[in-house]
Design a protein that fits this description.
This protein is mainly alpha-helical. The chain is built from twelve helices and three strands, in the order H-H-E-H-H-E-E-H-H-H-H-H-H-H-H. Strand 2 and strand 3 form a beta hairpin.
Length: 257
């Protein structure tokens, strides 16, 4: 049996931060698309990809790869989009056994209408918070992770190419150290204080907040005492109930000078 390579303390912290970011950004983007356009993120990705292709058409196998989904998942999605009149399937002119997905005029109009809201959500969730150097580091880290996940195969050109507005890699910057245990404890205490003050401002008991959010009273006690490690979903429920945005709720406390 292969020996387990346990994570270092720093790797644990980075993994947890990465997992929280994935959940937060995914929830933001998925929620906006479903709320405003009635589309899943995968559905939007498929339709948007087709909208950029010649004749707005692409082989199903290639489309699955570009949209980062399995063929079976894509087939189920395309069936649903066909029922809505946004996509149709045709036989491949080059391989009669193959299938081509074609974006209809109605589908193109749908994705064009959904695009501005989606772009605004992506910018708010990701790019507004990044400096040019941060954007370069994020791009490099994603490229490394994707290259490893694809078993070392070259990245497809639509992912690997660098935009003309950024022809050179960003200048080296001093890396910030990962948050310490004291930093994380201070953040938990700050979140707890914000929840407690907002609850008291509404004159809610812990039982009332538990009823409004579906979060257990015991968890709420731990959150307010700064000893819990709540998930993004729990924090979102608390923020929605108390009228606090998630970014404001998890804002790091000011350092003590």
């Amino acid at each position: 049996m292969e020996q387990v390579r346990w994570l270092t303390e720093r790797e644990v912290r980075v993994w947890r931060l990465f997992a929280v970011v994935l959940g937060f950004v995914g929830d933001q983007i998925e929620g906006q698309l479903q709320r405003d356009a009635g589309l899943t993120h995968f559905g939007y990705a498929v339709m948007s990809t087709l909208s950029e292709m010649p004749d707005r058409a692409m082989r199903m196998s290639e489309l699955a790869a570009m949209a980062n989904g399995s063929r079976s998942r894509l087939s189920h999605l395309v069936t649903a989009l066909e029922r809505r009149g946004w996509i149709r399937r045709e036989r491949s002119p080059h391989d009669r056994r193959g299938s081509v997905a074609v974006l209809t005029e109605a589908g193109y109009a749908k994705v064009a209408a959904a695009a501005p809201g989606h772009v605004a959500a992506v910018r708010a969730a990701v790019f507004d918070a990044l400096s040019p150097q941060g954007l370069g580091r994020l791009e490099a880290a994603c490229a490394e992770l994707l290259a490893a996940a694809s078993a070392g195969r070259p990245l497809p050109p639509w992912l690997a190419s660098r935009g003309p507005e950024d022809p050179q890699p960003p200048a080296p910057v001093v890396q910030k150290s990962a948050p310490s245990e004291d930093d994380l404890a201070a953040l938990a205490a700050a979140i707890g204080a914000r929840v407690r003050l907002a609850r008291q401002a509404r004159r809610w008991t812990l039982d009332r907040l538990a009823e409004a959010t579906g979060v257990s009273r015991r968890m709420l006690v731990n959150v307010e005492q700064g000893v819990a490690n709540p998930t993004v979903g729990t924090l979102r429920k608390l923020g929605d109930a108390l009228g606090i945005s998630l970014p404001a709720l998890v804002e790091p406390p000011e350092p003590v000078r």
